[in-house]
Amino acid sequence: MDLSFTPEEERFRKDARAYLDELLHGDFAEIRGRGGPGDEHACFDGRLAWERQLGADGWTCVGWPVEFGGRGLSLDLQVIFCEEYARAGGPGRLGHIGEGLIGPTLIHFGSPEQQREFLPAIRRGEQLWCQGYSEPNAGSDLANVQTRAELDGDRWIVSGQKVWTSNAQWSDWCFVLARTDRDVPKHKGISFLLVPMDAPGIEIRPIVQITGTSEFNEVFFDETPTRADLVVGGPGNGWKVAMGLLAFERGASTLGQQFGFLREFAELRSAASRRGRTKDPVLRQRLASMWGRLEIQRWNSLRMLTMADRPELSGPSYVAKLYWARLHRDLGELAFDVLGPEAALCDGHPYELTAAQRLLLYTRADTIYGGSNQIQRNIIGERALGLPAEPKVVG
Ligand SMILES: Cc1cc2nc3c(=O)[nH]c(=O)nc-3n(C[C@H](O)[C@H](O)[C@H](O)COP(=O)(O)OP(=O)(O)OC[C@H]3O[C@@H](n4cnc5c(N)ncnc54)[C@H](O)[C@@H]3O)c2cc1C
């Protein structure tokens, strides 16, 4: 198995690196490394300007087909771009839900009118999106969504509640899973609707997370109208569209994220040396073991890339989320142990968390979002190990 990149791919890496380094050490130096998990509120205007700059220079949506405004880059090149982005300390992307989730979904399932209406603004970095899937009783069991929508002339009228909606407070649009038919089995009565966040009847209530910030929100819809034609894939086909979108969620950016983890690890290693903590034999073991796990993650990502066109060899992709989520959570705990008692201290009140504190606190979420580790193990049980389907709980 050849896990190396070609000379052409390495040339692309050089170009991407030069572009990112120039901007992030020049006009956008202030936002370098900002806006990541637990730091979502930082430098909002600067990061919005960054989205537009990337869009103007053709560095958003690089994997979208050329006819939809992208560059049509191969998965390998997309991963290289994500790796370089993380290595350069690119800021948390405000446009990632538009670019990585709804954009590919519209390209795959949307009507030509929907594609024309939304894709250009997403690509230019001018339109932000959020994901209205989860509800208080529909997380792992997503098909249980109770938010409902009824067709009333030329509009859908949406009522219900979503929860854990990341970035809703900054978004222009939300894609909403809503029940549009109660008389059919639950997977079949769901539609995938596009709802403008400034429509009447929407209330956004931020949820304070353990980081003290509010990346996610509750979103209430009280007879909120949206246009009748803004249903993706047709009424009642929402489950198929929703599952298609989740496949995009595990794309190039997660394969490239190991470089971001490596940056975090490098800072930790330096901090350990500066504080003389490398004399502690147990910490030395843990640092070395973490480095080994990061290397394994890298090789597994490369293996997945090599197998991208051979779905029968999908073992490495099944374990990827399980593996990196646990690894990253352990990295957060290691950061705290390296810093010792100082890790728990903040300046003044209200306080700003340090990078290590954000890492520890935010990584608790890694084993939950995008499908919890337990759900991921169920998938491995059924699809990779061929175990019988999970027994349904009755009652
Ligand atoms: C930081 C963060 C951001 C998020 N952003 C968004 C967003 O933008 N939009 C959105 O729609 N959602 C978002 N989510 C929600 C996320 O998708 C859900 O939290 C996740 O799917 C789990 O659902 P739940 O929280 O309802 O937990 P539940 O489904 O209630 O699960 C509770 C516990 O039971 C376990 N469990 C449940 N079912 C099974 C089973 N069958 N077998 C074994 N164990 C089981 C779970 O693993 C978990 O440990 C976000 C979550 C987080 C943490």
SSE arrangement, N to C: HHHHHEEEEEEEEHHHHHHH
Biggest sheet overview = 4 strands, mixed
Helix residue percentage? 40-55%
**Strand-residue proportion:** 5-15%
Helical element count? 12
Distance between the termini: 49 Å
Number of strands: 8
Whole-angstrom Rg: 22 Å
Sheet with most strands: strand arrangement = 1-4-5-8
Class inferred from helices and paired strands? alpha+beta
List ligands, each type once.
Answer: flavin-adenine dinucleotide
Could you list the spans in which at least 5 consecutive residues all have pLDDT below 50? none
Report on the architecture of this protein.
By secondary structure, the chain is α+β, with helices and mostly antiparallel strands. 45% of the residues lie in helices and 12% in strands. It has twelve helices and eight strands. The strands form two sheets. The chain has a four-stranded mixed beta sheet. Strands 2-3-7-6 form a four-stranded antiparallel beta sheet, with no helix packed on it. Strand 2 and strand 3 form a beta hairpin. It binds flavin-adenine dinucleotide (FAD). The site of flavin-adenine dinucleotide (FAD) has 18 residues, from strand 1 and helix 12.
Which descriptors would you attach to this protein?
alpha+beta; globular; 395 residues; 12% strand; 4-stranded antiparallel β-sheet; binds flavin-adenine dinucleotide
